[in-house]
Automatic annotation (TrEMBL):
Gene3D superfamilies: 3.90.950.10. Binds 1 Mg(2+) ion per subunit. This is dITP/XTP pyrophosphatase. It comes from Flavobacterium alvei. Its cofactor is Mg(2+). It comes from the Bacteria. Substrate binds at residues 7-12, 69, 148-151, 171, 176-177. Its EC number is 3.6.1.66. GO terms for cellular component: cytosol.
Amino acid sequence: MKIVFATNNKNKILEVQQMLPQTIEIISLESIGCFEEIPETATTIEENAIMKANYVTEKYGYDCFADDTGLEVEALNGEPGVFSARYAGEQRNSDDNMNKLLKTLTGEPNRNAQFKTVIALNLKGKQQCFTGIAKGEITIEKTGNQGFGYDPIFKPEGFDVTFAQLSLVEKGAISHRGKATEQLIAFLKN
C-alpha cells in the first residue's frame, strides 16, 4: 500500500516510515507535485491535522494522512500547543522556540508537559483520527542531539534522558507520534 503523508518535514517522514511495516510506503508531498505550504490556521491540533489531510485529498485526489503535533505545558495553560512550531515567530526555528520556552519557565517549579499528536487519515472517502500523547517534563537546559523540535528539552515520563538522547527506534516506541502511528497502522492492517 502506498499513501501520501501530508508533510514537508523530512524528519517526520523518516521517523514515521521507520515505524511503518514494509508493506506501507509513504509518498511525499514532493512526489505528488505539492510544493506549496499547506494552511495550518486552525485553533486546535486536531483541526490542523484534518485541514492538512483534506487539503491534499481535495486538491490532489490522493488518500493521505496528515499529522499535527503540539507541546502542551501545564504551567502555561497548554501553551505553546497549536503554535508550537512558531512559538518564537514565523521563522519556525527550533532553537528559538526552545530558548523562549526555557526563558518563560525560568523559576517555574511545575515543569509538567505533554506532546500531543493527532493523525487524520483520509482513506477511500472516509476520515479517521488517531491521537497519541507522551507525558513528561521540560528540562532546565538542552541535552542531546537526536530528533528535532523540542526533543532536547523534553524528558519523557519514566526516563532520565530527553527525547534527543534516544535513537529514532527508542523514541518511536514511546513518543506521541509513535502512539498515534501505532493506531494508524492497526487501522490500516484491518
